[in-house]
Amino acid sequence: MLGSMGFLANSALAIGATGVGSLTYGLVEAQAFKVRELDLALLPAGSESIRVLHISDLHITPAQTRKINWVKSLAELEPDFVVGTGDFLAHQLAVPAVVEAMNELLDIPGAYVLGSNDYFAPTIKNPFMYFNKKREIRAEGTALPTSDLVDELNDAGWLDLNNKQSTAVINGVKIHFRGTDDPHINKDDYSAVAGAFDSDAFAFGVTHAPYRRVLQSFETDNADLVLAGHTHGGQICIPFYGALVTNCDLPQGQAKGFSTFGESEMPMHVSAGVGTSPFAQVRIACRPEATLITLNAKTN
After folding, report:
1. CA 235 centroid distance within chain
2. Number of domains in the chain
3. Angstrom distance (rounded) from CA 149 to CA 89
4. Per-residue pLDDT reduced to its tens digit, 226-254
5. Verdict on whether the full-model pTM lies above 0.85
6. Is residue 111 part of a domain?
7. To 5 degrees, how large is the angle CA 30–CA 35–CA 40?
8. 209-241 core/surface letters (b: 16 or more CB in 10 A; e: else)
9. 107: domain range?
């Protein structure tokens, strides 16, 4: 009996140590920011290349100096265009911190959509709730200064794509941008922008949460590329397996990176994001990231 009790005690200690070790590693990895590079041959033949910086899910709070400085450094990549796919904020006083982090990026042409955490402050949540795909998603919480964030981005000349569309010419290529507000809290209204993209333009879709209903709408209208965020890449993943959840109805295998959607195999990139909720500042097997996407001309 004493031997059994000793075995159980040692097992409990081992499990506890493993848990502490995993948590410690997760806290460290959440600060291990990286830039991922992706080359896509999607532009019309003969087009000049376009370097697009895709940032998402910054979840910035005023005290996150390391993250703020890293986001600042992204301007050194010298992108031609920046796309932000939402969840810039994570605190009521975060707008000045976001502007500080993105100061030089805001001097570069860009476009953005918002995420739920740009409207409502994050709250403590049971992590197991994310496994319930049928749970009700509610738009609730302490209101954040969304209008201040929007004013800063608009004043910088970035395109507001929240259920809106616009065109721009980048390196001689006409781009027709179209986006939705956050589908996660049902603020998306694709009908406001639905219809054929300009026939002489590259069709570029942007949304925060890659719900299938929105992706299907982009596919129906023949988008050439869609960028999204929201999933955090699963945030806590199993090595050599991947994400356990996506926090939307996208399959786990598409939680981050480049993939295709639907019968037309519409190109899509989902960012694993830069930040986390301030109440769950861990990442495991899913480093925080921004992606530099180089759009090249098609070869055939």
Report:
1. 12
2. 1
3. 9
4. 999 999 999 999 999 999 999 999 999 99
5. yes
6. yes
7. 135
8. bbbeebbebbbebebbbbbbbbbbbbbbbeeee
9. 31-297
